[in-house]
Design goal:
- The chain has 280 residues and is α+β, with helices and mostly antiparallel strands.
- It has one domain (2-139, 183-255, 270-279): 4-Layer Sandwich (Phosphatase 2c, domain 1).
- The chain is built from 7 helices and 10 strands.
- Strand 2 (20-25) and strand 3 (28-34) form a beta hairpin.
- The protein starts with a strand and ends with a strand.
């Protein structure tokens, strides 16, 4: 049984939609990070990414509540996302980059204990009693690769790295990269049921008292990008300081480097979401 200790989700820009989402029940939890839109919305509402993240989180919890295994829940939620997207969109996407996608870190009970399933660069930090933190997911490697990519693009176009994803100089490269999503090994949660066959997964040993920190890459940046914490220290600080304090520290780092010259990134601040749980 999962006990919620703390949670937070804050937008990178208060004037724009928060494209992250999270949800939890007593046997499952999820953090979703919608990929920033690179053009006009196809769905009703302010953000296709926000729609997908919130929709995916709700459907995953609904299937987990009904007794589905984690993998069954992911497959069913992807089917629902595809069905709803095709029914509600203004028109079919002209290219893949117009389709909404999201990263995901989903944990749920199965017959073996707890299974973690993920797409993209959301992460889970697992702190068992009297053991170091285990990092579940691919977030650290993906974050390092993106920082290098941002720095290269910024140098090529003589811009500050955090000039914004909608700069014409960045947009072409970002759209080109987005077109590879859900093919060639770059799978994400989206309106595409085929992704269920490509979700990454791992069984987690989680005895009573184990603490799990699920987070989007915008929150994990404290460790992955800004070197404010390592994984063990971040998990400990989440319990001792609380997630609100950590989010303030996150924004303070970003305010001191608004152009992304010290810490290369596409935006000064990203949406940041974290969910702190304990196995009861």
């Amino acid at each position: 049984m999962l006990e919620v200790l703390d949670s937070i989700s804050v937008p990178g820009n208060p004037e724009k939609p928060n494209d992250d989402a999270f949800a939890h029940i007593d046997r499952a939890a999820v953090v979703m990070d919608g990929a920033t839109g690179l053009g006009d919305s196809l769905m009703p509402g302010k953000s296709d990414a926000a729609w997908l993240a919130a929709f995916g989180a709700r459907r995953l919890m609904a299937y987990a509540r009904d007794g589905a295994s984690p993998r069954e829940a992911v497959g069913a939620a992807l089917f629902d996302a595809q069905t709803s997207f095709e029914a509600l969109r203004k028109r079919p996407p002209a290219d893949t980059w117009e389709t909404p996608f999201a990263s995901m870190m989903f944990i749920g009970e199965d017959t073996q204990g707890i299974e973690a399933l993920w797409f993209g660069d959301c992460a889970a930090l697992v702190k068992r009693p009297d053991a170091p933190v285990e990092i579940v997911g691919d977030a650290l490697e993906k974050r390092r690769n993106e920082a290098k990519r941002v720095a290269r693009l910024a140098e090529k176009h003589k811009l500050s790295p955090a000039a914004g994803v909608n700069r014409p100089e960045y947009l072409e490269a970002l759209r080109k990269a987005r077109n590879f999503v859900n093919r060639d090994g770059h799978w994400a949660f989206g309106p595409d049921v085929r992704a269920a066959e490509h979700v990454s997964g791992k069984q987690i040993l989680a005895p009573k008292g184990t603490v799990l920190l699920l987070c989007s890459d915008g929150f994990l940046a404290l460790a992955s990008d800004y070197d404010a914490y390592d994984a063990d220290a971040l998990a400990a600080a989440a319990q001792s300081k609380g997630l609100t304090v950590l989010c303030k520290e996150l924004r303070d780092v970003e305010k001191d480097d608004p152009e992304g010259r010290k810490f290369p990134r596409f935006k000064t601040s990203d949406d940041a979401t974290a969910l702190l749980l304990r196995v009861a």
